[in-house]
């Protein structure tokens, strides 16, 4: 039995407000993290879409090449922002935005921890006390943001789960 395409038409894709939002998101992602404009546009699109969608539909709706969409979708998947949904009996895959972005925050914490460790290593090879002090200050700042971020994420989870004492 062949797979039936699970295509959901994008609501109001070409309405001015939606287009401005998607394009603006693309520019924001491009300037914030150096990600490509297409990656940001795809993220906005997936956030707005009510159901998973295939690469062909994404490329059509966003008016970009399928190869560009494929690369952007992989970037979002690797970054924990989108989920890839294989279709049984087919090479076709669907993508959707993830429901929670906690994994993205945890990935940030791991990256900051790696940076803090590299700065601590730099303290050991620094040629002057001033350079070592600068690296220590930077490493301490990173560690502080990691600790505070983990604490905020814990409080966020408590609040979302409705635990007592989580106002």
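-> sequence recovered:
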């Amino acid at each position: 039995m062949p797979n039936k395409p699970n295509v959901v038409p994008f609501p109001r894709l070409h309405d001015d407000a939606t287009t401005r939002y998607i394009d603006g998101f693309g520019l924001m992602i491009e300037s914030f993290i150096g990600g490509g404009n297409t990656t940001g546009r795809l993220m906005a699109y997936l956030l707005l879409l009510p159901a998973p969608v295939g690469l062909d539909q994404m490329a059509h709706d966003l008016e970009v090449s399928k190869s560009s969409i494929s690369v952007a979708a992989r970037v979002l998947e690797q970054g924990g922002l989108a989920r890839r949904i294989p279709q049984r009996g087919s090479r076709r895959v669907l993508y959707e935005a993830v429901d929670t972005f906690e994994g993205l925050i945890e990935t940030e914490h791991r990256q900051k921890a790696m940076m803090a460790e590299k700065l601590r290593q730099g303290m050991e090879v620094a040629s002057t006390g001033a350079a070592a002090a600068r690296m220590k200050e930077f490493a301490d700042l990173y560690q502080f943001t990691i600790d505070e971020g983990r604490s905020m994420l814990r409080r966020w989870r408590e609040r979302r789960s409705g635990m007592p004492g989580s106002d």
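The chain has a mean pLDDT of 87.
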